[in-house]
Amino acid sequence: MEAFYLIIIALLLLLTMLNLNTGVSNDAVNFLAPAVGAKAAGYKLVMAIAVAGVFIGAATNNGMMDIARHGIFTPIHFSFTEVMCIFLAVVATDVVLLDIFNSLGLPTSTTVSMVFELLGASFAISIIKLSGNTIDGLTLGALLNTSKALSVVIGIFLSVAIAFFFGLVVQWITRMLFSFNQKNRTWWKIGIFGSVAITAILYFMLIKGMKGASFMTESLKTWIDGHIVQLLLITFAGSMLLTQILYWLKINVFKVIILFGTFALAMAFAGNDLVNFIGVPLAALSSVTDFLQNGVGVSPDDFMMTSLMESAHTPIYFLIASGVIMSFALVTSKKARRVLQTSINLSSENDCDDGHGTSPVARILVRMGLNVNYVLESITPQPLQNFIQRQFSRRVVTDSRDGAAFDLVRASVNIVLAGLLIALGTSLKLPLSTTYVTFMVGMGTSLSDRAWSRESAVFKVTGVITVIVGWFTTAIAAFFIAAMVAVLLLFGGKIAMLAVIVLAFFLLVRSHIVYRRKMKENKGKEEALSIVLTSNNPDAVWDEIRNSLASTLSETICYASETYQKILDAADDENDRALRTYHRQILEQIAQLKRYRRYITAGLRRIDSTVAMEKNTWYHLCISNTVQMLNTLRFLCEPLKEHTDNNFTPLPAAYVNEFQDYKSRIKQALESIAWIIGNRNYTNSKSYSVEAKNIKKELDALLKMQTSRMSSRPAATLRTDLLYLTIIQESHELLSQVRNVLRGSHKLFEQ
Q1: Number of CB atoms found within 10 A of residue 154's CB
Q2: What CA–CA distance (Å, rounded) separates 154 from 176?
Q3: For position 398, what pLDDT does the model report?
Q4: Other beta carbons less than 10 A from residue 92's beta carbon
């Protein structure tokens, strides 16, 4: 018995180490996005500051683990077995759930996931307890702390609405004070802004970042609370003097604010969100220790966990170890960079979409926003409109860094306002999520700063909606998955406990392998697109565009060749499942190629104007015909899928055999042209173009023959005759489009 639970705890702590890595990957966006997005400093310096904040915040934290011990359920009513089922369910669910969100590149709240996992697992165990309850007066309200979960849900709505609104308003006011032209930023404006910003960050650190520190005694907290106004006034005066000195020394005050705020947010994250990662495992360790010491001769099902009602006292070595793991994860995690990129892309001034596509809700919201803007413009005096337009004009951007997603002013507002709102929420005892506040402040400031143009607004609104829906999905999924796992553990016993932990490890390892493979495949493309969108060297941009286009066009034609044959083979075999899969994949390829087209189109604006004028026509010819090739595959697949789904009569063997040679020759023609474009070797391009043209002529003759024989065939065969006619027509279109791509790419890539 003792050995079994020690093994469980060892595995649980190992899983917790992975959870720390996963959690940091998700929450890194909270404190890194402003500094990284604005290029306030080199990435290594920003990371070093964040690592320092994370380590200090974790190492000086007193644990704040009580929420995991008795914040959601009342442990005096639960046995040791039941408590272990709850804790194991929470850790296993949390690790896998957060890893899924990180792999998708979506930020979510570790606080919400932990709270709802605890609530779901304890709710399931409570229902089972009540169904066999023999104790009078024991109710669900006595077993669970439902008010805590309700406060988190309220906090979600407050975080989203308040952060977005204040981000919108404060950024607009700040932009009225500081335009994009750095020359207009006088000393007194910078002094006032810098003083307010530094004072707000310090207030945030005192209220949120240090309130759980081990050196913060009750007397010190009381003294700070009683002298908070005096401290803030002294800080304001001191920071006013500091900003003036920095201004005279020609040191960028905005960069100092951003880096100071990054440290404060990182410290607060580690100090206050640490419970989300190690609170539950340490509560499980405490439970095992209590049972082994005081449960001699008592069944695990009868030993009640009264000890969990006491406050936690986390050993310092656990905190230091957590700080080391979190710091290491922050530096090495590639998933953290992907989640970070999602937030930065949605705040960026680029017009490219961010991989989320569009949605009906986003289109409605954008239309409503445009209508409101029209009304405001109609009632705003023209002189005021002209002044506002000058302040938001990007014709003169004097503090822009190469590849920055937004300027230093907006980054400063993001980090200062996020910290201030979190501090205010904490002081008012409102459960505002760090993730929700920082993300929505960034979205509000980007909208206010006109980073969402009409070309990109619908994509970015869709991205924001996707993230917000993901937040609510986190809560729902965490609740139900943890509940099911807890029930499985309760009835499955020791075997189920080991199986769940092993399964969690397996899913994590598998997820990492798949993710690494996917990132390896996309690495080259991502690097190329980064150069295309951020480099200020026109020649380098054009070289990357050519290389990227050759690769993309070739890969798409190869995909079309393979999918064309697979569709016809699946139709011959009446494989409806395969046809549905191919249809879904084609739609995904179309969406992906359209996103790629927007990136490259944006990149063409960064190359030499003479080259752009010369190459634009051929680029659009190539990319448009490539998209049309995928659409042709869709038009081919849809009627075949519908025909097979409805179990209609398959194509006659005579038709299948007649078209077999054409199918092989078309596939060969596509593959040959794909090779030519991929290698940019057009020596034999004319012969392959002629071959495709000859196949087209033969298809024209086959089309006429099919049309002629349809008139003499019985009406019962009309459906299959029309289907065969569609196959011939779409094959003909496919060859026309690939010949256009070949011709256009030759002109596009020639020196």
Answers
A1: 12
A2: 33
A3: 44
A4: 29
Closest CA to 65 of 75, 80, 79: 75
Q: Which residue has the tokens 């919201």?
A: 365
Euclidean distance between CA atoms 305 and 513, whole angstroms: 39
**Three-class secondary structure of residue 540 per DSSP:** helix
Rounded to whole angstroms, what are the CA distances from 609 to 544, 605, 618? 16, 8, 15
Alpha helices in 105-252 (DSSP H): 110-131, 140-143, 146-177, 187-204, 218-226, 228-248
Please tell me the distance from the alpha carbon of residue 413 to that of residue 167, in angstroms, as a whole number. 8
The continuous run of DSSP H or E covering 420 comes out as: helix 408-427
Render pLDDT for 284-341 as a digit per residue (tens, 0 to 9): 888 888 888 887 778 888 888 888 888 767 777 777 887 888 788 777 776 666 666 6
Q: In the structure encoding, which two tokens stand for residue 142, read together? A: 């006595």
For 259, other C-beta atoms within 10 Å of its C-beta total 19
Per-residue tokens: 710: 């349809």
Reference 54, options 277, 252, 218; nearest CA is 277
User: In whole angstroms, what is the distance from residue 352 CA to residue 333 CA?
Assistant: 26
Neighbouring CB atoms inside 10 A of 82's CB total 25
- Angle at 405 (CA atoms; ends 400, 406), nearest 5 degrees: 60
Residues 112 and 120: beta-carbon distance below 8 Å: no
Q: Which of 9, 77, 95, 25 is nearest to 485 (CA)?
A: 95
Distance CA 579, CA 561 (A): 15
* CA–CA gap between residue 165 and residue 561 (Å, rounded): 50
Indicate the DSSP class of residue 260.
H
Residue pair 454/466 in contact by the 8 Å Cβ criterion: no
Residue whose pair of structure tokens reads 């669970």 in the numeric block:
144
Write the CB contacts of 389 (distance below 8 Å, at least 6 apart in sequence): none
Q: What integer pLDDT is reported at residue 583 of this predicted model? A: 93
Q: Are 646 and 631 in contact (CB under 8 A)?
A: no
Distance CA 77, CA 144 (A): 10
Helix (H, G, I), strand (E, B) or coil at 575: coil
Q: Which of 375, 17, 396, 19 is nearest to 185 (CA)?
A: 396
What type of residue sits at position 508? Answer: L
Do 101 and 315 meet the contact criterion of CB atoms below 8 Å apart?
no
Following DSSP, what letter does each residue of 497-510 receive, concatenated?
A: HHHHHHHHHHHHHH
Token pair listed for 78: 């639960």
Q: Which amino acid is at 202?
A: L
CA gyration radius, the chain: 31
Give me the residues paired with residue 144 across strands.
Answer: 73
Task: Report the amino acid identity of residue 147.
Answer: S
- Among 525, 516, 56, 82, which Cα is nearest to 319's? 56
Q: Cα(303)–Cα(291) distance, rounded to whole angstroms?
A: 7
Half-sphere exposure of 384 (CA within 13 A, CB side): 6
Q: How far apart are CA 101 and CA 339, in angstroms?
A: 9
| Neighbour-count burial for 23-33, b at 16+ CB within 10 Å, e otherwise | bbbbbbbbbbb
Take residue 354 and report the two structure tokens written for it: 């961010």
pTM: 0.70
**Residues 651-687 pLDDT 10s:** 888 888 999 999 999 999 999 999 999 998 898 889 9
Q: How many helices (H) and strands (E) does the chain have?
A: 25, 0
What the block records as the tokens of 262 is: 């990054």
